[in-house]
Amino acid sequence: MKNFLFGKDIVSIDSLSKEHVELIFEKTREMAELVKKKDGDRRLEGKIITTAFFEPSTRTYSSFVAAAQRLGAGIIPLNGMTNTSVAKGESFEHTIKVLSRYSNCLVVRHPEPGKPAEAAGFVDIPVINAGDGINEHPTQGLFDTYTIRQYFGKIDGLTVVMVGDLKNGRTVHSLTKTLVKMGKLTLIYVAPGVLRMPNDVRNTVVEMGGRFDEVENLASVISLADVVYMTRVQKERFLDHTEYERLKDYYVLDKSLLHKVKKNALIMHPLPIAGEITSEVDSDSRAIYLTQELSNGLYLRMALLDLLLLQGRK
Ligand code: NCD
Question: Which of 136, 140, 170, 237 most suits a substitution to test ligand 1, by most atoms within 8 Å of the C-beta?
Fold first, then answer.
């Protein structure tokens, strides 16, 4: 397959075609094999990846760093910008331009929607969005879709139930967009009214020929799910602390609710969990948020670095 992703930015799922996603998935499979066989190789030797994370991160940050290193690239590891010139008042544009001079690829996380896309406009090297405020988290949406397809062998006909803060949670926006691009499925959005899935994402589902339902009661739909995708109520997006306190435990997946979930379903979560899944669920064989989901995140990020930075037919 031709590598039509060479030199591109990954700032939103919107700019990826189905063929792009297939190419990324094929490369992800190759990376999984590579890591299992020999931990990695040196194909990105001489390249430098900068992680410019203006917001906290554990998984996304460390998996990008690991992805770069497993392919032999060097890294400029910035996780939090308080020790950079950002603290001296440097503009976003200047910080991004400075970092781009020293690197071959920028991975940008930022609390404000649109900042990675803005960064991409400032520089010639590829920019990857590692989460921009309440907007998108494309790499998470990609590897979660990859994980679902790997397990079920298809997207068509599945029922995916997304639960929690669908308004502020960027992972469910990117996941929705990726899923409807890759197949015809049913989405069930479970959220309190104030945390509903945003209009533009719901519109995308309809435009792509997908179907969605919206309900408030998790217990009434959980038995329909092939995938239960739980999310955290996004504390940092709330201006009103009492509103957060009111909503934070709105949905809790515990053992009793788990009994209603299909035997061959998947329980997924982008992490971190902040009370919405009880720890007794962790060891259930359907719960893959501490296992396959994490490994696939690494493989997919390795795949993207390879595709964006190495030319040639893949
Ligand atoms: C998510 C994020 O940052 O959007 N975490 C992650 O990257 N895996 C989800 C969250 O913070 O709730």
Answer: 140
What is d(CA 62, CA 75) in angstroms, rounded to the nearest whole number?
A: 11
| Torsion sign across C-alpha atoms 216, 218, 223, 229 | positive
What is the distance of C-alpha 53 from the center of its chain? 15
pLDDT confidence of residue 29:
98
CB atoms within 10 A of CB 46: 9
Task: Decide if 165 contacts 195 (C-beta within 8 A).
Answer: yes
CA 312 to ligand 1 center in whole angstroms: 33
Nearest to 248 by CA among 195, 199, 176: 195
Q: Does 163 contact ligand 1 (Cβ within 6 A)?
A: no
**Which CATH code for domain 138-291?**
3.40.50.1370
pLDDT in tens, 191-210: 999 999 999 999 999 999 99
Residues of the chain with CATH 3.40.50.1370: 13-136+294-309, 138-291
Report the separation in Å between the CA atom of 238 and the middle of ligand 1, taken as the mean of its atom positions. Answer: 15
State which residues of the chain have pLDDT below 70.
1, 312-314
Instruction: Identify the residue whose tokens are 């939090």.
Output: 80
Structure tokens at 81: 């910008």
303-312 confidence digits (pLDDT tens): 999 999 998 6
pLDDT at 87: 86
Distance CA(289)–CA(139), nearest Å, equals 15
**Fold of the domain built from segment(s) 13-136+294-309:** Rossmann fold (3.40.50)
Q: Is 262 in the pocket of ligand 1 (CB under 6 A)?
A: no
For a mutational test of ligand 1's pocket, the pick from 65, 171, 173, 234, i.e. the residue with the most ligand atoms closer than 8 A to its C-beta, is 171
For residues 119 and 133, the answer to whether their CB atoms sit within 8 Å is no
> Which amino acid is present at 300?
L
Please answer whether residues 132 and 114 qualify as being in contact, where contact means their C-beta atoms are separated by less than 8 angstroms. Answer: yes
